[in-house]
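Shipment paperwork, digital attachment
Item: protein structure file
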Amino acid sequence: MCPPTHLKKVRRLAEFFQQHTDTVVPDPYYGGSEDFERVLDLVEDGVQGLLAHCQRQLAG
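Attachment content:
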């Protein structure tokens, strides 16, 4: 859905995982509470990695 000129800017949150080896953040909608907890763990890990990436970009 991204215009081709901006495609190189689009990245998956999973690329920024620091503690998890998953390659995607799954949709927990049809799962139980443990699935939502797993997604929360992944998102928190990815956001921490993204912030670290941004800090490195700004410092360099």
